Structures are given as C-alpha cells and as structure tokens.
Amino acid sequence: MTPHVEPDPQAGAAVKAADRAHVFHSWSAQGLIDPLAVAGAEGSYFWDYDGNRYLDFTSGLVYTNIGYQHPKVVAAIQEQAGKLATFAPAFAVDVRSEAARLIAERTPGDLDKIFFTNGGAEAVENAVRMARLHTGRTKVLSAYRSYHGATSTAINLTGDPRRWASDNGTAGVVRFWAPFLYRSPFYATTEAEESARALQHLEDTIAFEGPATVAAIILETVPGTAGIMTPPPGYLAGVREICDKYGIVFILDEVMAGFGRTGKWFAAEHFDVVPDLMTFAKGVNSGYVPLGGVAISAEIAATFDKRPYPGGLTYSGHPLACAAAVATIQVMEDEKVVENAAHIGENVLGPGLRELAERHPSVGEVRGMGVFWALDLVKNRETREPLVPYNAAGEANAPMAAFGAAAKKQGLWPFVNMNRTHAVPACNVSEAEAKEGLAALDAALSVADEHTV
After folding, report:
1. How far apart are CA 115 and CA 123, in angstroms?
2. Residue 230: helix, strand or coil by DSSP?
3. Measured between alpha carbons, how far is residue 62 from residues 59, 120, 313, 410, 415 in Å?
C-alpha cells in the first residue's frame, strides 16, 4: 500500500493553517495541539501530505472495523445519495428498515427493536431514559473505569477523568468498582475471587443506595478506552442475576466492543449474557456516516406500545448512515470479517503481544481478545507502578509521549491512553499488517523500557 497522491507539503500546510484558524478540537487545549494533516486513507493505512504512511492501530477512534474507504460501502453511500439522500425519521424508509433488521438479527436474545441515534453518547442517553421511564426509578449505577460518551447523562455516567469538569450532583449516577484483577480494588488473587468480590460489592452498593431507587446498571461489556479489561468468568452473568433480583434494567454498552471487535458480532456472546438494552455505534457502519442506536428488549419496547416515548432525533436512522450500515454488515458477512478478527486475536496479536511482554520490562500485562488488546505499561513489574501517573499530563507524561513518538517513527499510529497502549486495528486487518504492527511496537517499547526501574 502506497499513498495515492504525490507528496504536497504546501497543500498540507494550507490544510493545517485552516484547521488551526477555525476548527475547535475535542478534549484538547487548543493552543497546545498540532493535528496531523491527513491526505488520504485506505484499508488499514493513512498518509500525510509529506508522503509518510502510517499503519493505523487505532481504527480511527476504534470504529473503522472494515478499514478506510471500503469500495462497497462507499458505493452504497453514493447510490443512496442518488436515490434518497435524507428523509424524516417518522416515515418507513426501506434502507432504515433493512438496517434495523440486519442489526436485530445479530443482537442476542430478544433485542429486536432498534432506536437509531447519531452516535454512541446519544445511544447511552436514550437507553438510560428508557430504563428510567420503564422502571419509574432514577438512579443509574456505572463503573469507575468506564467511558460512555460526552453528552450530559453519558458524561456523568463516565468513570474516567473526562467526567470531572462536567460532573454535577443531580444526574442520579452512583459509581462502583467493576472487576480488574491486575489492579484489583478487592485484594483478589484469582479471577474467581475477583468476580465474587466485585459482585458482592455491587450488591452491597445497591443495598445501601436502596434497590427500589435504582433504574439501571450500565457496563461496557469489555471496557474500551478505560483499559480493555475483559470481565472474569461469571461476572456479567452475576450482574444479570442481580438485576433480575431487584428489577433493575441491565444496559450493556457495546459502542466500542460491538460489530466484530472482539471476534464476535457482540462481545456479550462471549459471556452468554443478554441485557435488557444494548447500545451500539462506531463499527455498525465502520464510522463512514455517523450512526448509533439502542437495541431494545421486548419487555421494555412494550412499555411504549401505547405510551409515547419522549425522545427523538432529527437524523434518527438517516438514510445515508443506514445504507452504510447495510453495506458494512454485508461486507462483514461476505468477507468473514468477524471470523478474521477472532483469528488475528487468537493466532497473531495475542501470541505476538505476549511475546513482546516477555522481552520488554515495561509491559506489565497483556489483555484482550479479537482485535481489542491493551498493554499495561509499568515502571516496575513487581510493584505494578504505572509508567506514568493516573491522568498524567506534561512532563509527568513524558515516558508515554516518548513511546508514542517512537511508534510513529516506525510508521505505526498508536492508541495511547494514560499508561497504556491499545492494539485495536481494523477487524479485517491481515496477518502481515498485524505482524508489521507488532514489529513497530517492539521498537517503540524499547523506548518505554528506558523508563523502568
């Protein structure tokens, strides 16, 4: 794969200048950032105006599950634009109906009704609203190590530091500790202990909050940005039992883990659990046009059979986004993308990352599945002290910044968050591309090793 345009630094400088003059970037101090000007992308790669090519081990923001510019999805968007570019959500539109049908066919259990949104945060907002209206309760429990979006309710549900600036005391959110054996808050030494103690902690939290006040528990099936901590056996099934015991709605957030990322259509399949509501976005159409949604159980859908649901979006089920979803799901079926993600995880990324951990003292733990992996980087393997402090910035974050720069020098665009790097390439990444990424990580981890003790 080579760039499809000749290097043109002058054009790149113009793009950068316009960006700096007019674009306000998310999660950033505007005067301290230097965005890369991207000239093009295809498959698992993108390139800049200077002709530098990068293997994208971030999948955009973990959403280009079938890579960039897949010709069948691009063609479907073009065809839909010529046929019916947009239409209001109150009408039945063929491509909207077909997208909902294809999604419902793949969701677990009876999650057969689909409410479309423009993205994951809106999906979470509406899932929580549905749960509160269905139960007549207010409180929602969420985990500390989590991210659910940046809209009002979603950011209050979020556990990581991006919540802090927008936190308020009226959101009805209660946080708890979900299992994470490597940094166990329960002093557990085995997965079985971690699962049992985390479930007891959750049930104790519900008891002290008042079970009759709790509308929902929301969990990322496999937490994404917070660190790809695969839940231990029995945990999600235990949460399901607790929810059933107290009449609490169980919401699984599959915005990042869904649509093939873990080697299954949805991560919930790995744990044989069916939630009451499930949110999705990102990989549903590889991010080509903004789309998200809520998959709704029959019981909760019935709540609104004769009672209007008080929520909606102007662009709910936008025809261009739904056309992209239909084409993406068909591509994933035809090209066995989900099976490829499972294969790459089991036979290439998993073994390769564990081999890197054996040779690099900066790697404390490797965890993940499919094409959804994290390396927990540490100063000291024995103490498990993170390579940089929690939510580090500036000079305190220098070791991770040096690691990221080293990866880019190797032609790899890394996903870096706090003291971790995530290996999250496209779900249709090839064996050769995955191995290329592992080689680049090998070189970059040597830089991280310099900061160990």
Report:
1. 8
2. coil
3. 5, 12, 24, 21, 9
pLDDT in tens, 70-92: 999 999 999 999 999 999 999 99
| CA 290 to chain CA centroid, nearest Å | 14
| Residue in 439, 260, 279, 445 with CA at minimum distance from that of residue 340 | 260
Q: Residues 87, 92, 93, 96: is their CA dihedral positive or negative?
A: positive
- Alpha carbon distance 7, 230 (integer Å): 42
Label residue 134 by pLDDT band (50, 70, 90). very high
Task: Indicate the pLDDT class of residue 1, thresholds 50, 70 and 90.
Answer: very low
Burial of 190 (0-12, 13-18, 19+ CB in 10 A): exposed
Q: Is the pLDDT of residue 344 over 60?
A: yes
3-class secondary structure, 253: strand
Whole-model pTM: value is: 0.94
Q: Is the dihedral angle over the CA atoms 27, 447, 411, 375 positive or is it negative?
A: negative
Lookup result for tokens 């968007």: 77
Give the Cβ contact number of residue 405 at 10 Å: 13
Separation of alpha carbons 155 and 148, rounded Å:
6
Tens-digit pLDDT profile for residues 291-315 = 999 999 999 999 999 999 999 999 9
Per the CB < 8 A criterion, the answer to whether 131 and 276 are in contact is yes
Packing angle, helices 398-409 and 431-449, rounded to 10:
140
Burial code (b: 16+ CB inside 10 Å, e: under 16) for 77-101 equals: beebeeeeeeeeeeeebebbeebbe
The pairs formed by 304-313 with CB atoms below 8 angstroms and a separation of 24 or more are: 304/130, 304/133, 309/115, 309/130, 309/133, 310/129, 310/133, 311/126, 311/129, 312/89, 313/89, 313/116, 313/117, 313/118, 313/122
60 exposed, middle or buried (CB, 10 Å; 0-12, 13-18, 19+)?
Answer: middle
Contact partners, residue 41, CB within 8 Å, separation at least 6: 47, 56, 68, 69
Mean pLDDT of 364-388: 98
Total Cβ atoms within 10 A of residue 205: 16
